[in-house]
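Please fill in the sequence for the structure shown.

STRUCTURE ENCODING:
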């Protein structure tokens, strides 16, 4: 046994054959499942959805995420496939993927996103003001979900009054996969985005407005099709709505369980840069993404064949003890922190600067208002399933500062 294999133990393939990341409450005990998977001598394989391998070790995941010529995103990143057109650029492989990224990257730099701080903070303040006088609050529906939705619309220039409608459509697409309601949501969202692209394309400056840039955009010398324009815009909303909600809600759960974390961050705000990276590592909201093997390869002790499906588990990679000291604990000063919470390789998250801005502002405002937050003893939390996983219910008791 090599040094790299030290500590791994053979696990019967049957133990993982029924693995399904869409099963109810999967994330509630996922860490134990991930520990067992990382210990396996080969990649665990599930029989669900036509069969797929699960990549859980940090080194294996980075290998697969960096090798798009072997592990392709072009056949889809969800498992099973969703009833929609492809996500651009997430479901496009380089070199074409880089062309799409070059169109969007100038609008998503840290400096450009930082210019939105005042309006994002105003949204956080307004939502928290709405909780004034309340003690028992279900924080997902009241804050962690609506906050990034309104913030994303403000950053991308959508009408703020459309927040609830768009959130419902995106949620229906993500969680109603393959259903008639999901198909209807997809059609309604497409029609809405076409209208917005036409309005912004006709009235806004493409050098200053991301939707206008998409409407006037081109790749490889050809104008973007309306299908690609819609897909790019839809992906901006998907990422903007879900990632921060899931990371923020899990961070508040940590504050409720370990109030010393909130106290330390309140007293040492200089820790925010490393703390935000740690919260994203721990939460891993983009928990699973699919790749399709397009050339025979070997990964994690398994021989893979063209056409095989692999499910990259970013959550498990971010808890790999071979890389992270005490991975199931929060270290607000963890540095270095080579987490893959924003992905890795060519498909690393486009909107990471947005996520970090929104997380910081939300946590600053919460720490300013509340001495502590506690779990409501008369209610219970709930976890979602699928590729992007996190809390769907977080009932808290809010303790305002004097």
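FILLED IN BY: designer on duty
SEQUENCE:
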């Amino acid at each position: 046994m090599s040094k790299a294999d030290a500590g791994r133990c053979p696990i019967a393939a049957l133990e993982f054959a029924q693995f399904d990341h869409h099963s109810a409450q999967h994330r509630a005990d996922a860490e134990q499942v991930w520990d067992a998977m990382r210990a396996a001598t080969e990649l665990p394989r599930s029989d669900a959805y036509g069969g797929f391998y699960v990549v859980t070790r940090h080194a294996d995941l980075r290998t697969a995420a960096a090798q798009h010529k072997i592990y392709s995103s072009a056949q889809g990143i969800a498992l099973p496939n969703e009833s929609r057109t492809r996500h651009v650029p997430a479901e496009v492989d380089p070199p074409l993927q880089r062309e799409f990224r070059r169109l969007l990257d100038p609008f998503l730099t840290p400096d450009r996103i930082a210019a939105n701080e005042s309006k994002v903070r105003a949204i956080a303040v307004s939502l928290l003001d709405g909780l004034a006088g309340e003690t028992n609050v279900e924080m997902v529906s009241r804050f962690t979900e609506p906050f990034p939705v309104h913030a994303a619309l403000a950053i991308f220039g959508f009408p703020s009054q459309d927040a609830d409608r768009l959130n419902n459509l995106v949620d229906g697409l993500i969680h109603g996969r393959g259903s008639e309601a999901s198909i209807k949501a997809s059609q309604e969202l497409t029609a809405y985005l076409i209208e917005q692209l036409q309005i912004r394309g006709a009235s806004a400056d493409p050098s200053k407005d991301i939707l206008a840039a998409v409407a006037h955009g081109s790749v490889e010398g050809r104008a973007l099709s309306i299908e690609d324009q819609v897909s790019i815009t839809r992906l901006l909303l998907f990422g903007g709505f879900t990632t921060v909600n899931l990371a923020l809600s899990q961070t508040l759960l940590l504050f409720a369980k370990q109030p010393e974390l909130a106290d330390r961050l309140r007293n040492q705000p200089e820790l925010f840069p490393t703390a935000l990276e740690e919260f994203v590592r721990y939460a891993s909201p983009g928990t699973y993404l699919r790749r399709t093997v397009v050339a025979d390869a070997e990964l994690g002790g398994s021989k893979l064949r063209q056409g095989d499906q692999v499910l990259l588990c970013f959550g498990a990679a971010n808890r790999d003890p071979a890389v992270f000291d005490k991975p199931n604990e929060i270290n607000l000063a963890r540095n270095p922190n080579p987490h893959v919470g924003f992905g890795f390789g060519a498909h690393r998250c486009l909107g990471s600067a947005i996520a970090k801005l929104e997380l910081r502002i939300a946590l600053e405002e919460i720490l300013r208002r509340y001495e502590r937050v506690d779990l409501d003893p008369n209610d219970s939390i709930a976890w979602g399933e699928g590729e992007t996983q996190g809390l769907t219910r977080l009932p808290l008791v809010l303790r305002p500062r004097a």
